[in-house]
């Protein structure tokens, strides 16, 4: 996972499918090309929003807009590639939301209205689907 992270974040946003700087979503506005094989083959009919989060200094807030019933999900993977949380239509609904992805051992206070999500590792990969 760390090799995948290093490769993905060492690219300017918009230069490669799903790659870009840490703590920044890269939104892919078109379906994945058939020859994309950087990781396991993604779905042909899904739009992706991808980010790597660095929680080594502090939590990161992920805000989602009201999708007005449109299906989406934001699977969050730890550094063992296990999904530990998945905000989205089936789990949190389609209304606007704010989630703080919190690093292991963090003991601060979050502003009101932000739902904490405890991450098991200090780096998190979000592979959002719409």
Topology at a glance:
Layout: H1 2-9, E1 26-28, E2 48-54, E3 60-64, E4 76-77, E5 83-85, E6 97-102, E7 115-118, E8 123-129
Parallel strand pairs: 6-7
Antiparallel strand pairs: 1-2, 2-8, 3-6, 4-5, 4-8
Write down the Rg.
15 Å
CATH topology: Immunoglobulin-like
* Gap between N and C termini: 23 Å
The top-level CATH class is Mainly Beta
Which spans of ≥5 residues are poorly predicted at pLDDT below 50?
A: none
Structural class: mainly beta
Quick one: overall form? globular
CATH architecture: Sandwich
Query: What spatial order of strands do you see in the largest sheet?
Result: 1-2-8-4-5
CATH superfamily: Domain of unknown function DUF1254
Q: How many domains?
A: 1
Return the average pLDDT rounded to an integer: 88
H/E series, N to C? HEEEEEEEE
**Largest beta sheet, briefly?**
5 strands, antiparallel
Strand coverage percent: 25-35%
Number of distinct beta strands = 8
Enumerate how many helices there are, as a single number: 1
Spell out the key features of this protein.
mainly beta, 3-stranded mixed beta sheet, 5-stranded antiparallel beta sheet, 130 residues, Immunoglobulin-like
């Amino acid at each position: 996972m760390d090799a995948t992270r290093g490769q993905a974040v060492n690219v300017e946003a918009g230069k490669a499918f799903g790659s870009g700087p840490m703590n920044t979503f890269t939104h892919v506005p078109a379906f994945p090309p058939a020859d994309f094989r950087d990781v396991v083959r993604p779905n042909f009919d899904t739009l992706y929003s991808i980010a790597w989060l660095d929680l080594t200094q502090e939590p990161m807030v992920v805000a989602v807009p009201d999708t007005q019933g449109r299906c989406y999900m934001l699977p969050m993977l730890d550094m063992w590639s296990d999904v530990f949380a998945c905000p989205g239509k089936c789990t949190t609904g389609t209304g606007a939301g704010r989630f703080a992805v919190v690093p292991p051992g963090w003991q601060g206070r979050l502003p009101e209205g932000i739902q904490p999500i405890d991450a098991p590792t200090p780096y998190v990969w979000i592979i959002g689907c719409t």
